[in-house]
Amino acid sequence: MKRIQLSILLTITAYSMIFAQMGINTSTPLSTLDINAKNSTGTSASADGILIPRVDRQRAQNMSGTPVSTMVYINSIATGSPTGTAVNIDTIGYYYYNGTSWIKLNPSVNIYTSDGTLSNFRSITTNGNSLNFVNGTSNVGINMSETNGGFSANGSTRGTLTLSAGTNSIDTYVDNANAAQMNASGTTSKFSIGTTNTTPLGLKTNGTEKLTMLSNGNVGIGTTAPNTALELASGTPNSSGLRFTNLTSASPITAGQALGVDGAGNIVTVANPSPTNVNTSSVNGTTEASFNVNDLVAAVTSQSINIPAGGKALFINFMLGVDYINNPSGSGTAYYEARLYIDGAATDCYMRTQEIGISANAFFSISTIKFLAAGNHTIDVRMQRTFNNGTASGANMLCTPISMSFNASYLN
User: Fold this and answer.
1) Element at 246 (helix H, strand E)
2) Residue ranges in the chain whose pLDDT is less than 70
3) Could you give the CA distance from residue 294 to residue 397 in angstroms, rounded to a whole number?
4) Distance CA 145, CA 128 (A)
5) Contact 72, 93 (CB under 8 A)
6) CB atoms < 10 A from the CB of 4, how many?
7) Looking at residue 254, what is its pLDDT?
8) What does the pLDDT read at residue 54?
């Protein structure tokens, strides 16, 4: 039997030397060694294939002078140890020799069992599927479709996305207390949110944009087209929408200018009003000397007043009560008038009463407002008989004052 096997081996060897290729179950080998299955189809139960030498770990570990690419099947790791050339032999399976150690064929090393280092750029095509990293109830996912891509970080208590550089971080999170926040921490000197083109920056709530910043720096609250550095549209007629919580009508008055609005609603400064002062000039008395009144010359009761720069509205009030003493010639019942004069010119303010007999009383009262320019002015009330009504012209009526008050006041 051994002789027959040797003959077959010699025949195969000779054949391979002639043709430099050898085939088993084929007369037309396509490579150095081309082995075809004896039964490549059908229902035959006989085994086809190559049976690789089977050794245990100890045997592989003790081999010496092993050529590179030698392949064995480790059928047991109960012997030997994972050291030396057998450092990688830790499971039953196929191994090949790389000149230094036995290497597992198709090892099950991946990101689930071992760490590793990418040697080059890698691209993962998910074919429309999401990529999720799950740890209990928390997960990080890259969710993609043909038109949308998203990144999510979910947890049972909080979902957080953190971007870090050195000691600085930006945290964006939503927690189970319904708080959504974006915070910067560390030693960063600025947290900037904005655009790098002329697109406006908007902030919205409840689905509606409430605050807008244009590329020119104008900020609008309640408007998306602010025309000034800050424009506030309250949406309520006659309400500015602006409130100074800590500055109210009860706050102390200090120096400075007051605020007002112009016709377009712009806030402007206006001069603080000066404190209101009342300046009064007056003459009054109950012991004034008696005086004569006739139809030819007017008796005068006067006072002087100085109006400051800018002019003022003058409030004038005159009251005079007299007693007619005598009975002028003609014994008529004449009319007597008290008229207001300013700087010697008669005004349209006067009062007339009719004399009804000796020892009769008469009262004259004048109240008016006149605007006077700055400077000194003389204000007087003149008495005169305007209708003789039977009284002789030029005859005097002696008048004795009962009471008198003459006030001229302005506000500044």
Assistant:
1) none
2) 1-20, 107-109, 273-287, 412
3) 6
4) 5
5) no
6) 8
7) 75
8) 96
Q: Which amino acid is at 191?
A: F
Residue 286 pLDDT: 45
CA 29 remoteness from chain centre: 80
State residue 90 phi and psi, 5-degree precision: -125, -5
Distance CA 180, CA 361 (A): 89
The answer to whether residues 379 and 316 touch, using CB atoms and an 8 Å cutoff, is: yes
The reported pLDDT for the residue numbered 354 is 92
Length of the chain measured in residues: 412
Pairing of strands 397-411, 208-213: unpaired
Strands in 89-148 per DSSP E: 93-97, 102-104, 131-135, 138-144
pLDDT one-digit tens code per residue, 84-97 = 999 999 999 999 99
Do 378 and 301 meet the contact criterion of CB atoms below 8 Å apart? no
Determine how many CB atoms are found less than 10 A away from the CB of residue 220. Answer: 22
* CA 357 to the chain's CA centroid: 85
Residue with tokens 């050898």: 22
In the chain, the amino acid numbered 325 is I
Q: Which of 399, 370, 369 is nearest to 384 (CA)?
A: 399
Tell me the three state secondary structure of residue 244: coil
Measured CA to CA, the distance from residue 331 to residue 322 in angstroms comes to 19
- What is the rounded average pLDDT for all residues in the chain? 85
Helix spans in 184-283 (H): none
Cα–Cα distance for residue pair 109/103, rounded to 1 Å? 12
* Rounded alpha-carbon distances, angstroms, from residue 169 to 52, 121, 153, 193: 57, 27, 16, 15
Give the HSE-up count for residue 32: Cα atoms under 13 Å, Cβ half-sphere: 0
Distance CA 372, CA 306 (A): 10
- From CA 409, how far away is CA 407, in angstroms rounded? 6
The DSSP-derived string for 325-393 is -S--TT----EEEEEEEETTEEEEEEEEEE--STT-EEEEEEEEEEEE-SEEEEEEEEEEEEE-TTSPT
Q: Which residue has the tokens 């004795």?
A: 400
- Which CA distances in Å does 323 have to 286, 320, 387? 12, 10, 18
